[in-house]
DNA sequence: GATCGTACATAACACTTGTTATGTACGATC
DNA sequence: GATCGTACATAACAAGTGTTATGTACGATC
């Protein structure tokens, strides 16, 4: 008899297939059969691990969010603006995996707007994301690395807006937004809010790559 | 025999129903029957005016974009930062109609990412939007209303990112982002890029309402 | 080694989908 | 006023959907 962990591991395998299908075919292309063939299995496997489609989607999305959060938490960051920059960089579609995940999130937004339960979950995730960004902004403001003209909560909302809006533009026009430009745009954005004089040079070092 | 204009007018009626269905139920809820009942008609009407679903979606999305552009073009704007602010304000979900249209756009993004034809169209619309914002940014920089540290194209991309990212957050959490806060966030954002000193007060007057 | 529960595959179900065909009211044309 | 094309409604169709039922291989348990 397989251990309990195997069961959960299988559910995560299915969830990852959901991510890929969602990223490739959008929410309207997310069918149990598509998920099954994505895994090279049958729909029987999917229905064996999830009671219905709604539960499958809920689990897959929640898992995606948990993975993202875990990855962000793991990195020991220097506080303040550097940490904020790292947290935002972490979201951008700078590599193939990040592209897939962002495609899945954007594809999910449309469905979440229409379904009350998914909507609530997504709103909570947004609030959670902002709450995790907030201490970095506060610390950056305390250090004078970020302008204090705007309130911390507002600055967080602005930074989150910029980042996700950039994600959408990147996904639709990847050739116009290669990783280097994404990073440079983020730095220009942060530059705008880095204290009094807006043009005193970059406050954060360029990414090594 | 009805005039040619009636035929086109009917196609626009159908398109508007598509917008509402898309905003309410997302792309996966966009069915010919849903569109028909949204109009209080039968699917026969829809199929009479459009050869297939793909053509219907294409037409509806293109019409939505044309309407938006026409509205933006009509307003005679003062040049520079004021014009940029007005153009961005025009996109935000400040009223019920704008909320509906933005919900439809976000719902459409997911489908556009998955379908090559729709993807191309959406990428073109983004490029077009940036091209229309560009002269305002250039003029604002020339006047010294906007920081010239960042390139004009980059500033446009940053402004577009911020605006659409804010749209998404507003749609998911409207109570946290009432119209006044949306406007104040936009002004804070623009403030960050308004020349040397970042905190010399608002560069653009608050909206009257 | 018989029993049994788990982990699937396979198949069938009712339902919804886009599409197509058919029917029909009705104003314009001769 | 007969004819005709337009503007739909109604209905039928095959294909695809989520869900449920059934079959079955197989390692663990006694």
TrEMBL record, chains A, B:
Q: Which keywords fit this entry according to its UniProt record?
A: DNA-binding, Repressor, Transcription, Transcription regulation
Origin superkingdom: Bacteria
Q: Transcription among the record's keywords?
A: yes
Residue intervals annotated as DNA-binding region are: 31-50
What InterPro entries does this protein map onto? Answer: BetI_C, DNA-bd_HTH_TetR-type_CS, Homeodomain-like_sf, HTH-type_TetR-like_transc_reg, HTH_TetR, Tet_transcr_reg_TetR-rel_C_sf
Presence of the UniProt keyword DNA-binding in the record: yes
Q: Start and end of every HTH tetR-type domain?
A: 8-68
Q: What is this protein called?
A: TetR/AcrR family transcriptional regulator
């Amino acid at each position: 008899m397989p251990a309990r962990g195997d069961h959960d591991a299988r559910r995560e395998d299915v969830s990852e297939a959901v991510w890929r299908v969602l990223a490739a075919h959008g929410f309207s292309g997310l069918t149990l059969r598509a998920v099954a063939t994505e895994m090279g299995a049958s729909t029987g496997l999917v229905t064996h691990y999830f009671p219905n489609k709604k539960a499958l989607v809920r689990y897959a999305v929640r898992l995606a969010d948990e993975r993202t959060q875990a990855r962000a938490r793991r990195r020991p960051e220097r506080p303040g603006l550097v940490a904020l920059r790292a947290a935002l960089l972490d979201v951008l579609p700078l590599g193939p995996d990040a592209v897939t995940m962002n495609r899945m999130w954007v594809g999910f937004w449309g469905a979440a707007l229409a379904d009350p339960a998914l909507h609530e979950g997504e709103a909570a995730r947004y609030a959670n994301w902002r709450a995790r960004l907030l201490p970095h902004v506060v610390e950056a403001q305390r250090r004078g690395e970020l302008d204090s003209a705007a309130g911390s909560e507002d600055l967080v909302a602005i930074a989150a807006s910029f980042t996700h809006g950039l994600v959408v533009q990147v996904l639709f026009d990847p050739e116009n937004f290669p990783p280097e430009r994404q990073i440079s745009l983020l730095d220009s954005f942060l530059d705008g809010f880095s204290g009094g004089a807006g043009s005193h040079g970059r406050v954060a070092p360029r990414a090594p790559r």
